[in-house]
Amino acid sequence: RSGTLAESNRRETAAWSAFVAQRFDLGGFTLTPILRYEAMEFDRRNRLDGVAGASTLDRLLPGLGATWRLDADTTFFASIHRGFAPPRVEDLIGGTGTVTDVGAEDSINLEAGVRTQLRPGLDLQASVFRYDFDNLIAVGSIAGGGTPLSQGEALFQGAELGVQARLDGGFRSRLAYTWVATAEQTTPFINVATKSAVAGSVAGNRQPYAPEHLLTAAAGWSGGAFELELEAQHVGRQYSDFANTVAPTADGQRGEIASYLVWNVAVNYRASASVSVFATVKNLADRTYITDRTRGIQVGMPRLLQVGARYTF
Fold it and tell me: What is the DSSP code string of 231-273?
């Protein structure tokens, strides 16, 4: 289109990482301490006026993992480590070259669980987790004109379950379930531009875009040259803002996002050792559902049919 070029930036990140780890085998136990070092340089240049800015960041990140092999079929595991994620260049350095006080994400991550074969053809993995963030970067409403970045302390904890079964007659099934029992703002989140608390953010509120329940379940069959699988994906209800607003606003930028269930199906036919034909249908029922309100209402993918072939040589 015609018009004036409003923004042209060159953003660069250089990153270095190194780690040292030692595994100790103590009979059925293993203990693995690890120490990781991360260093980064961020640069941004406004190509319209030549203004540039730069920043650096580094972290020393310890961790410890442990396993206990009970028998040939069952292993218990646990780990604790320091979590880290750097800010993006465009969030850290503004178009005028100024460096915004956006901290890296820092957390203490703990996990413990078990992997076991309950019987031949039936595998299970279950775990509990706790992620305690000293600093979490979260996105507010962009469509509403608000500053998209805020940061604060948060706590996530819950459990995960995974099951895979291989049955007689070529039948199989799988299930993956995540229960995020806690997704708490433990402090009010602070707008990185104004340094003031985000409207509605208070300690104890649930973190936006953190559904309590996530489930994927599938059942399939294979026989001869055919494979068939039916999959269901469920995402629980979630909030779209720090205030945990339930009733949708007229502009669609705030309000609870209802839970939804999507069905998918896939068929594969192996015509020969080198040729196979496949077809997949995602959102089989062509359901319309909301997935995001950050930029106003955004709906999920409509029914999508894909047909293709693979040739191996």
Answer: EEEEE--B-SSTT---SPPTTSSSSPBPPEEEEEEEEEEE-SS
The residue among 104 and 145 whose pLDDT is bigger is 104
**Tens of pLDDT, residues 282-303:** 999 999 999 998 888 999 999 9
Query: pLDDT tens digits, residue range 51-61?
Result: 888 889 999 99
H or E stretch covering 3: none
DSSP class of 141: -
pLDDT at 2: 77
Separation CA 123–CA 268 (nearest Å): 25
Query: pTM value?
Result: 0.87
N- to C-terminal Cα separation, the chain: 45
Amino acid at 104: A
Reading the block at residue 257, the tokens are 């996002």
Q: How far is 265 from 248, CA to CA, in rounded Å?
A: 32
- With beta carbons less than 8 A apart as the criterion, state whether 254 and 240 touch: yes
CA distances, 274 to each of 269, 270, 306 (Å): 11, 8, 20
Buried b (16+ CB within 10 A) or exposed e, 152-174: bbbbbbbebebbbbeeeeeebbb
Length of the chain equals 313
Collapsed DSSP state (helix, strand, coil) of residue 50: coil
Count of other CB atoms within 10 angstroms of residue 98? 9
